[in-house]
Design goal:
By secondary structure, the chain is of the alpha/beta class. The chain has helices spanning 36-42, 51-66, 86-97, 110-115; strands spanning 2-6, 9-14, 18-21, 26-29, 70-73, 103-107, 124-127, 131-133, 136-138, 149-152, 157-161, 164-171, 175-177, 188-189, 197-201, 206-209. 19% of the residues lie in helices and 33% in strands. The strands form 2 sheets. Strands 8, 9, 10, 11, 12, 13, 14, 15 and 16 form a 9-stranded mixed sheet that branches. The chain has a 7-stranded mixed sheet with strand order 1-2-3-4-5-6-7, covered by helices on one side. The chain is globular and about 45 Å long. The two termini are 20 Å apart.
Length: 211
């Protein structure tokens, strides 16, 4: 993990594509896209079935490692309406049953508009963007014209480093864009401007990548 100070707030960047805000005991993730593999298989595309369960296990590990009391999901909880299958619901309900004391918030993203809010049994509080939480303006998609310190996702940022492409945290003047949490998601190459910073993550470590 790598802790940075951004506008006076300490944020810990986690190798598993999450940000921990210790002052608020809060873990932030973006773009889990639960049920994406299931929706692909539903239309006959042969992809692995285990991604939702594996991503839930990763999330549990993160929550336990940092002892988070609150989880904020920055959009795209479900991938699509076709992913709203009983098997996906069962996996998520089982995961939720192991974290009954965890308060969970979802800032709706573009995929959530079509997929719909999470099942009520998951007890997730849903908000339209922007949702103000502490010092943060929580969004799915960053808005360069909006005020506040923005935490967002949507872009699935990545960057080339040492001959490989890695997901990254993209720190701009007033925007911190998180990498996609979901393991079955694509990435988008970003080109940081002068004064911006990127922190690459290969799932094992977070490293500041020089411009």
């Amino acid at each position: 993990m790598l802790t940075i100070n951004w506008h006076g707030e300490d944020l810990t960047l986690c190798p598993d594509h999450a940000v921990f805000w210790a002052a608020g005991n809060t873990l932030f993730v973006a773009d889990p896209h639960f049920g994406k593999a299931a929706s692909f298989r539903r239309v006959g595309i042969p992809v692995p079935e285990e991604t939702t369960a594996a991503d839930c296990a990763r999330l549990t590990c993160l929550i336990e490692t940092v002892s988070a009391h609150t989880l904020v999901i920055l959009g795209d909880f479900l991938h699509s309406e076709m992913g709203r299958l009983s098997v996906v619901k069962a996996i998520l309900e089982e995961w939720r049953s192991g974290h009954l004391d965890l308060r969970i918030h979802l800032v709706r993203g573009n995929h959530d508009v079509s997929a719909g809010d999470p099942w009520p049994e998951l007890e997730i509080e849903c908000h339209d963007e922007p949702w103000v939480f502490g010092p943060w303006s929580c969004r799915h998609e960053a808005d360069e014209n909006a005020a506040g310190l923005q935490l967002s996702g949507h872009v699935h940022p990545s960057i080339s480093f040492a001959g490989a492409r890695v997901s990254c945290f993209w720190k701009r003047e007033r925007q911190l864009v998180l990498p996609a949490f979901g393991s079955f998601t694509g990435t988008h190459a970003v080109k940081p401007s002068a004064g911006e910073e990127v922190y690459g993550s290969d799932g094992q470590a977070v490293l500041r990548i020089p411009s």
